[in-house]
Design brief:
mainly beta, three-stranded antiparallel β-sheet, homodimer, 200 residues, globular
């Protein structure tokens, strides 16, 4: 294996592609955003260029939605990232609905939907980072497993790689977290004296 | 389609599973973190519980690394999220290397590696959010396409779903961003008067 110095590149990917919704001047609008993050539990970040139409709505109401489109919605999702709500009524593309929050519009055609209360806005030179806390979560009936988890394979999310600007689908589930590595815990002494072991 | 009120749940997933590295008291340590985010271009967030051993190293040096393991490293990656550097020398599991930054250790067995300069630490009650800017990026030679992008399929990343605590692999690439939706731009008038159209 030979490492290449790739310069200064963000290879942290893929990220989930979302449609962020907000009422702007009382009317629903959506924008495609994959620059998202989990900060902690039910607290997330959504990063939006200041030039976007939707930002004003997030700040005006202190609420926004995050909708997860399926791969079959790839074309319309990509489109919503290329045209502005200043010129196009993107809400007309979808069936809109509201939940607990009456100012954070959601997209019925997206299998999973969340409404967020804006906690804080981080003001960067070109972007605003909206930090929000979930208020309510909705999803298609067949998506919920054990009454609490989302069946990601059924959701079939759009995964975005900033490097190369590509959309990927989700692959197969291959392990359970906080479980698959458990058997190694008993081997810790061996590990401490063993040669480098990255693959098991 | 019927929407279910799922309560207050974070369905924003999957996220890339990373191994975050830092020198702690001069020795490399790694911890598994999937609560990450892209804030803007080469600025990212990494969220770590205050109880973790690695946090001190990030703050001590003002640097950290983000390493992207492959799915075949699932077991050891999961393990690194379950045991503490206070007790286990996790660096002994891997071949360690340094790049431009001499205090942000990286894992040679991970196909892609980044070194970050700490810009800001957001202090939450239980977590610290480390906001960093990329200083240098490294990857396996065969991973780089067109001399600048990462071949994500070859990287074969570990995708984490907090909902259900599952690891997934990446699926196939199905479209190019800022391109697949382009053809809809010419149809905007039709859209404005058309019934809801979420699938194309």
């Amino acid at each position: 294996m030979k490492k290449i110095d790739a310069g200064v590149k963000n290879f942290m990917c893929p990220m989930p592609t979302t449609l962020v919704g907000a009422n702007v001047s009382g009317k629903p609008n959506y924008i495609t955003i994959a620059h998202v993050g989990i900060l902690h539990s039910i607290t997330v970040s959504v990063s939006m260029h200041k030039g976007h139409y939707t930002n004003a709505g997030v700040k005006e109401n202190g609420t926004f939605s995050v909708n997860l489109p399926s791969a079959k919605m790839g074309k319309v999702t990509d489109y919503c990232g290329m045209v502005s709500g200043k010129e196009i009524d993107k809400a007309a593309l979808f069936t809109n609905f509201y939940g607990k929050l009456k100012t954070a519009p959601m997209i019925e055609e997206c299998p999973a939907n969340m409404q967020w209360r804006l906690l804080q806005t981080v003001d960067l030179p070109t972007h605003e980072i909206f930090i929000g806390e979930i208020v309510a979560t909705y999803c298609d009936e067949e998506l919920l497993t054990q009454g609490k988890n989302v069946n990601l394979s059924k959701l079939d999310p759009i995964l975005f790689s900033m490097s190369g600007a590509r959309y990927f689908r989700l692959g197969e589930e291959f392990a359970r977290a906080w479980q698959v590595g458990r058997e190694l815990i008993t081997k810790k002494v061996k590990f401490l004296s063993a040669p480098p072991l990255a693959q098991d």
